[in-house]
Amino acid sequence: MLGISAEAVLAATAALTAAAAGWSLGSARRRGDDAPGGEASFAVLHTISLASASLRTGLTEESARRAARHLRELLGVPAVAITDTERLLAWEGAGEVHSATVFPLASPVLTTGRPRVAVPEPVACGDPGCPIRVALIAPLTIEGRVAGALAAYGGGVRDERLQTLGEVARWASGQLELAELESSKTRLVEAEMRALRAQISPHFVYNSLTTIASFVRTDPERARELLLDFADFARYSFRDQRDFTTLAEELRSIHRYLLLERARFGDERLRFSVEIAPEVLPVAVPFLSLQPLVENAIRHGMQYGAERLHVRIVARDAGAEAAISVEDDGVGMDPGKLRALLEEGGESAPHGGIGLVNVDHRLRQVYGEEYGLVIETAVGAGMKVSLRVPKSHTAVAAR
Fold it and tell me: Disulfide engineering: 277 pairs with which of 49, 212, 317, 361, CB 3.0-4.6 Å?
């Protein structure tokens, strides 16, 4: 897990803004402009914003190329170069002939993690008209690990330029850490999605196909319909990953799942009812957030040979939110035992507990801690799992 703090990022950005504002004003004076300080500061912040957008995608050749021109403008130098730990990623500015020597000059910085000043001997190209005589090189780090280097090329060394380069490199490192954090969150979501898909057990697949086969001779039309339902359910569950879907699509897949389970257990033994407010059907919900709850209701509710089970799915309009619940009248569970099993991570939870834990974690991750699952149960009293989903959220888009 990444350890970057919001305070650290804000501090680095503030330091960068203060240092860069002076450079921008100096650049404006060199251009002969008389822009007010407010306009110059706005220009600096705009440049920072443009560079951020590139760096927040990670340290790649494409992101380095896009960021380099903004970093050169920010530093006010003839040329800028960006490397990772293996090669030059981007050169921006004059004297591109010097790009061949960037990585050798940056190698000591990549090894030690300390800034370096490269004086004329290894830098100069022999062209008297070339504006490049000196290189200032600073490390780019992610969680204390050197991930690359930022080099500023110019005609001479001044202490304030070296200090500014250090601030810019620290700020850029903060953006790369945020990109790494976002990437790790994405990998976590993908891992949780794989775990949820694994919950669609081989036993369900085997039982569904066996059930369908049993109808082939006695009721071929129903066998055909069930086979189509199974194909649609599998296509939805194992399609290309997406973070969100609509409540309507999730319920459509659950309907097919319930039809298959009713064919297996018998229409009289397994009943279900659905009460959905039409206005919440387009609401975006995390993909596969409801199906594990329904599966858990059936698998846990039907254990110990229960003769009948009624599963009820309700989705209501609750102002700015959609209130959704999955309820069964099965065997239920002792609340203390359920709490202990879920706090252990669900691995020892019976029949789909891992799915409950993953859904709970994903809801909290996307919407906030107050949006976790609420579970009501007691021995012999069934189980009700409730969740709330905001109708609109800046991080959510059904795709």
Answer: 317
Residues 19, 159 share a domain: yes
> Exposure string (b/e) for 219-231, b if CB count within 10 Å is 16 or more?
eeeebeebbebbe
240-290 confidence digits (pLDDT tens): 556 788 999 999 999 999 999 989 888 889 999 999 999 999 999 988 889
Q: Are 89 and 148 in contact (CB under 8 A)?
A: yes
**Rounded CA gap, 325 and 283, in Å?**
15
pTM of full prediction above 0.85: no
Are the C-beta atoms of residues 57 and 178 closer than 8 Å to each other? no
Is residue 117 domain-shared with residue 238, that is, in the same domain?
A: no
CA neighbor of 175 nearest in space, from 56, 72, 75: 56
**Full domain range(s) for residue 132:** 6-180
* 36 and 141, same domain (yes or no): yes
Residues 148 and 27 in one domain: yes
pLDDT tens-digit map of 358-372: 788 888 888 888 998
Torsion angle in degrees (nearest 10) through CA of 8, 63, 100, 98: -70
